[in-house]
Write a structure and sequence with these properties.
Blueprint: E1 4-7, H1 13-24, H2 36-44, E2 48-54, E3 61-68, E4 75-83, H3 92-104, E5 112-118, H4 123-129, E6 134-144, E7 148-157, E8 170-172, H5 176-186, E9 194-196, E10 210-213, H6 216-226, E11 242-246, E12 252-258, E13 263-270, H7 273-276, H8 280-289, E14 294-300, H9 304-312, E15 316-327, E16 330-340, H10 356-370
Parallel strand pairs: 4-5, 8-9, 13-14
Antiparallel strand pairs: 1-2, 2-3, 3-4, 5-7, 6-7, 10-11, 11-12, 12-13, 14-16, 15-16
Helix pairs in contact: 5-10
């Protein structure tokens, strides 16, 4: 008998926690499947659609998935896709995914939805691909689920959104292979984005420690005081919970640190990113000591200097998200720059053919950044 799909209710929380434990074990890194208070908030959140699949005869939960959005943006994240081991191969993951996309993208409430997909098998990639999601890149060592796993970034756009991308005149040349790969994946062109030499990195700081403030409520209040309207920052669905600043207070770096998953997202810098550009190395070292084996930043494609600064400090462009942010009638592209301090081992990674070019592009970019060029002796 086919499972019934319906909206999650607060009374489902205990059963949902058991479902996520059955699927992921004790290492699931997000509050969506582990924290009853956060789960209750998300179920009631008007910007989140959380669906469950249950057995019509017993009422037992067989699957769960959600699209989580936030006010002020028209982008959502597909997350928490889980199907009970007894129901694998039943097509339930696809039914949940399509039901969510129909109620958001097809209904016109969102411009795009993205998903970070596990690469331990090709199954999750094929589920989202069958429902209109296309690969955008690879995120190496992105999360700790008992051991380090690389994730793939996929997205699905509403009709016409990709046709309204704001053109970019020039990009750092190191991005050219990734942009060609993304263009082929999505059927778009970056031919007008001229590859140019990277912008020189600002002078680095003198050796000085960074102060770390881990007081989530304080950090959140201070962040919103500096960035009240979101116009000077854009990192959807990531609220900073940690603040880094030098002793003289010249700048403040806001980040979201997830110690359970061992990852961190650099969200914004005050008074502007340029003030912190020369400090990326000590910022990354500090976050690594705080428990982040993977650090990423979301950088606008048109910000040549910022992309160059991250690349100069060992960050690799692993993914590009076309038409991510709406700006009037147009949409801006973003690049995911990431750096991991742990050994990258792609031997256990399984990629479906559409994702393979992105993995090849990342490996090539990593080699160019970290391996010495060969010289031929005369």
């Amino acid at each position: 008998m086919s499972a019934v799909i319906e909206q999650a209710a607060p009374t489902d929380i205990a059963d949902l926690r058991q479902l996520y434990y059955a699927v992921y074990g004790p290492h699931y890194p997000t509050a969506l499947g582990t924290d009853p208070a956060e789960m209750s908030r998300l179920i009631r959140d008007p910007h989140t659609l959380w669906l469950v699949a249950r057995c019509p005869r017993t009422g037992a939960l067989a699957g769960s998935a959600a699209i989580h959005g936030e006010g002020g943006t028209r982008i959502g994240r597909l997350e928490g896709l889980a199907v009970h081991p007894d129901q694998r191969g039943s097509g339930l993951a696809g039914r949940l995914t399509e039901a969510l996309c129909s109620a958001t993208l097809d209904a016109g409430t969102l411009d795009s939805v993205y998903a970070t997909v596990r690469t331990v098998s090709a199954g999750p990639q094929r589920v989202v691909a069958r429902h209109g999601f296309r690969p955008l890149g690879i995120l190496p060592n992105a999360v700790d689920l008992g051991s380090r796993e690389s994730l793939a970034l996929y997205a699905r756009h509403s009709p016409g959104v990709l046709d309204r991308r704001v053109p970019v005149a020039e990009v750092p040349a190191l991005l050219a292979p990734l942009l060609r790969t993304a263009g082929a994946s999505l059927g778009i062109s970056y031919a007008d984005a001229r590859p140019t030499a990277p912008t020189p990195l600002p002078a680095g700081p003198a050796a000085a420690p960074l102060e770390v403030i881990e007081a989530p409520a304080f950090v959140r209040r201070r962040f919103h005081a500096h960035f009240p309207d979101g116009g000077r920052w854009f990192y959807p669905l990531h609220t900073p919970n940690i603040l880094l600043t030098p002793a003289d207070g010249d700048f403040e770096v806001y980040a979201y640190l997830n110690r359970t998953g061992g990852y961190c997202a650099l969200v914004a810098a005050h008074p502007d990113p340029a003030a912190a550009a020369g400090w990326l190395e000590p910022v990354t070292r500090t976050l690594t000591r705080a428990g982040a084996g993977y650090v990423e930043a979301l950088v606008p494609l048109e910000h040549h200097a910022a992309l160059s600064a991250f690349a100069a400090q060992g960050f690799i462009a692993g993914a590009v998200y076309p038409a991510m942010r709406r700006d009037g009638d147009g949409f801006h592209d973003y690049v995911v720059m990431s750096r991991t301090t742990e050994h990258i081992d792609f031997r256990g990674v399984v990629v479906d053919p559409p994702l393979q070019p992105f993995l090849d592009s990342y490996v090539s970019a990593w080699a160019s950044a970290h391996l010495p060029s060969r010289e031929v002796a005369p």
